[in-house]
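step 3/5: co-fold with zinc ion
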Amino acid sequence: MTDKIKVVFLGTSASVPTKDRNLSSVAMRFEGEWFLFDAPEGVQRQMVAAGISYLKINHIFISHFHADHILGLGGLLATMNIHGRDWAINIHGPKGIARKVQDSLSLAMLQPGFEVRCHEVRKGVVLKGEKFVLEAFALKHEIECWGYSFIEEGKPGEFDRAKAISLGVPVGHLFSELQHGRSVKVGGKTVKPEQVLDASKARAGRKISFVFDTLPSKGYVKAIENSDVLVHEASFLEERADRAQETMHSTALQAGKIAEEAQCKKLVLFHLSARHKEESRFENEARKAFGNIVVAKDLMEIEI
Ligand SMILES: [Zn+2]
Ligand SMILES: [Zn+2]
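step 4/5: write tokens
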């Protein structure tokens, strides 16, 4: 059975925390490893509430340097240090990320006992795992801001181990090549993946996209196309569309239109402005453009 991918909303508010909503941040689990997207104030407490271990995070992705997305980073690194972390953490973010991280460390008077590796994000693949890639795409905000897509590699079919052995393929890394749909050479002859894969059990990879602070824009539609889940900011309702435009944010309806255009399967709205109290209105407005919507609450979990 395939391990479910889990997405946990650690915070869902825009700009300021409220009684019910922490500042926006999302964690995603894939096969035991957690990825964290944004590290605002309060993120540690939300992780504790969600039962996410600091030890299982090796990659943190920062969308941009506005206060409500990054001010929790120093505290989080300090806690990792207290927990005795002794292996590297990777922090991905906009140009100048190394300086920002350095500033956070010096503010916290922290010299961590582990390596902090900073990576400036560019469009395209920012992290490649054995079974997935994580891609970044540019958003349209007041400052450099990135969205991220997690894209799982599809399975071309179920691997018939006995058949592979009978065809002379030695147990080892050639199995993995075949499992990934690539032909291998064994003793002068070629074994093709279709000889050892049951295509009736093929499965498309899952895709989950995270769109942080942005004006809605055609520029990132392609990058998020066909996402199983699109997590999209929706700071405002239509009655404040002028304010959304001014501060370079999206309305719920605009997020719905983007989800529709990109042919996503499910839309989750987050990063909601505290000025709009009734969350049902976010859902109702987005629904005018797109059917399958959830308005995120803090600590809400979805599985894919
Ligand atoms: Zn924000
Ligand atoms: Zn912002």
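step 5/5: annotate
The first strand starts at residue 6 and ends at 11.
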